[in-house]
Design a protein that fits this description.
Blueprint: H1 2-16, H2 31-86, H3 93-100
Helix pairs in contact: 2-3
Family: Belongs to the small hydrophilic plant seed protein family.
Biased composition (Basic and acidic residues): 7-17, 47-82, 105-115
InterPro entries: LEA_5, Sm_Hydphi_plant_seed_CS, Small_hydrophilic_seed_prot
Amino acid sequence: MATRQKKREELDERAKQGETVVPGGTGGKSLEAQQHLAQGRSKGGQTRKEQLGSEGYHEMGMKGGQTRKEQLGSEGYKEMGRKGGLSTMDKSGGERAAEQGIDIDESKFTNQHDE
């Protein structure tokens, strides 16, 4: 029981340092805040899926991906996919790319309209 509490304290400390320790908890300043954010985001997505139906929700996701591809251009979108494909539950795509010596050009991630 004490090890579980210690683990929670450790995660809370990391969250206070700005690290995302809960998937979907980005922006939370504590472990509890990140858990609440993740739960709310998940519930929000589920509610939207129920409103649109499975097919409509899938279509919405496709449109979002297409819009992002247009913003970044094909090359930037492809580069972002390379990085995302390297990610695991333990490490981000950037961390894995660095470990494996794979060069990811993040300058391609900026919107083409910014240039």
